[in-house]
Specification:
It is a single chain. The chain is mainly α and about 130 residues long. It has one domain. A hairpin with a 2-residue loop joins β1 and β2. The protein is globular and about 35 Å long. About 25% of the residues are buried. This is Prolamin-like domain-containing protein. InterPro entries: DD11, Prolamin-like. It comes from Thalictrum thalictroides (Rue-anemone).
């Protein structure tokens, strides 16, 4: 379980988001739910920029996304809202492509939506 949590943190946290280029080399052509188009390399460039912008404010983001905890800091929420909904959704799309996270494929979209809505309600509107 710790390795799954670490995988999520590595994908989302900017300082350890170095796996994105390797994912862009072999983007899977199917999702756990059916057909899923392979994403172009520019998508992964966008995701990498999102992750870098996200920063390191959410060290426990992996636990949040897989549903292990509901505890999220205001700093984490502010960082999430600051990157924007498109970046948030792109990061979730990448998580859904990680083979080691397949068992959470039904949880990740639900938890991602919960996290966005929760943070949108507690974070101040940023200019």
């Amino acid at each position: 379980m710790a390795s799954i949590r670490m995988m999520i943190v590595c994908l989302v946290v900017a300082g350890t988001f170095m796996v994105v280029p390797s994912l862009s080399l072999e983007a899977p052509s199917t999702s756990p739910a059916g057909s899923f188009d392979a994403k172009p390399p520019s998508f992964y460039d966008f995701v990498e920029k999102c992750a870098n912008k996200f920063g390191t404010k959410c060290p426990k983001i992996g636990d949040l996304i897989i549903g292990k905890t509901n505890v999220v800091s205001v700093d984490c929420c502010n960082a999430l809202i600051n990157i924007g909904k498109h970046c948030h959704d792109a990061l979730l799309t990448v998580l859904l492509q990680v083979k080691e996270l397949k068992q959470f494929s039904s949880v990740i979209p639900q938890r991602g939506a919960w996290l966005w809505n929760y943070c949108a309600n507690i974070s101040p509107v940023l200019p």
